[in-house]
Write a structure and sequence with these properties.
The protein is mainly beta. It is 7% helix and 48% strand. The protein has a single domain (2-339), classed as Tachylectin-2, Chain A (5 Propeller), CATH 2.115.10.
Length: 346
């Protein structure tokens, strides 16, 4: 039944459930209701999955038709403030509330429009389909972010405050090879590295742009060693997001859908040493999950590090504004032995 439900939600419903035709004209509060979820429904006491430890998760509901479609996120160093961007041209900011170490809800939530160069909300699907985001400076409350869009492929530089996201103040030139991207498979994942030898490098991946060897194409933009990179594909997964790690590497979130098997997700860790021009990257698989576990269309990943040295991965799903899909948020811990090697604790 889980497989059938996944197939229905991901294939049938997108034809029936459309993105909101408009966008809010300003930032507005939104109430979010959260229901706790187990990652393994049949074995809720199990916490170890692959190389990660499950900390908890929530199924989210909100009293706004603009809530949903979340494809990317960033977190503050303490993991208490979230900023997410929807592919329907909106942003969401919320406080993450915890019961000890376990995520229990989202409060102080505000939702607003992404603005275009004219200062008006983005409403045209050709221009509002945002898929990647990474912080340049500041924090989720105020700063500068880079946001990547597909269909009309581009990376815009966005100044933002607690009440406003944009207009964009500039644009990052795309690598020449990006012209080959499919309209609906653009720059799905971007991550600005802020530590280590690649500090200042923007890592960017298309959702699925195979090179001559069948590897998934990416780029190192700016920084000390710009150039083309490639991720070795494993079993036909597509890239959905990436986030920088405190040690100068990145994590990559991947997704695969087939009618015969439903939805799958994977998380890979890529070290800074692997990120070099011309490299074909394999990385380390941290977790792979099928829809026998409690996943949906997982599209966003964020990272923060606790003062204890633990690196926490936060995932969020894109519900495609479908009543048969869900907006999930969940957290996993990288064991300290793996995560505390380099970089200072926040």
């Amino acid at each position: 039944m889980a497989l059938v439900a996944s197939a229905a939600s991901l294939v049938i419903l997108p034809a029936l459930a459309d993105k909101p035709p408009a966008a809010p004209d300003r930032a507005m509060p939104v109430k979010i209701t959260a229901i706790p979820i187990d990652f393994d429904r049949e074995h809720p006491d199990q916490k170890q999955f692959g190389k990660l430890i499950y900390r908890g998760g929530l199924n989210l509901f909100a009293n706004s038709s603009f809530f949903g479609g979340y494809s990317e996120m960033v977190l503050d160093p303490n993991g208490t403030t979230l900023l997410a961007v929807s592919d329907a041209g909106t942003w969401l900011r919320a406080t993450l509330d915890y019961d000890g170490r376990v995520l229990k809800g989202l409060s102080n939530a505000v939702l607003g429009p992404l603005l275009g160069k004219d200062g008006k909300p983005l409403v045209d699907d050709q221009y509002r389909d945002s898929e990647g985001m990474t912080l340049v400076d500041g924090d989720p409350k105020q700063g500068t972010a880079l946001v990547s869009f597909e269909r009309k492929h581009r990376i815009w530089r966005y100044p933002f405050t607690e009440e406003k996201f944009g207009p964009p103040s500039g644009e990052v030139p795309l690598p020449a090879g990006a012209k080959a991207m499919n309209a609906n498979r653009g720059l799905e994942a971007i991550a600005l590295i802020r530590e280590g030898r690649l500090k200042g490098t923007l890592v960017a991946f298309s959702e699925r742009l195979p090179d001559k060897r069948g590897n998934l194409t990416g780029w190192l933009i700016g920084g000390p060693t710009p150039g083309t990179i490639a991720l070795k594909p494993i079993e036909g997964f597509d890239i959905t997001d990436a986030a920088p790690l405190p040690d100068g590497g990145i994590v990559i979130l991947e997704r695969r859908f087939r009618y015969s098997e439903g939805i799958k997700m994977r998380i890979r860790r890529v070290s800074a040493a692997e990120l070099k021009p011309g490299a074909a990257i394999e990385g380390e698989v941290l977790l792979e999950a099928t829809d026998n576990l409690n996943i949906d269309n997982m599209e966003a990943i964020g990272v923060h590090r606790r003062a204890s040295g633990e690196t926490i991965l936060t995932l969020m799903s894109d519900d495609n504004f479908s009543p048969l899909q869900r907006t999930l948020i969940m957290q996993f811990t990288l064991p300290e032995a793996k995560s505390a090697a380099a970089g200072s604790a926040n």
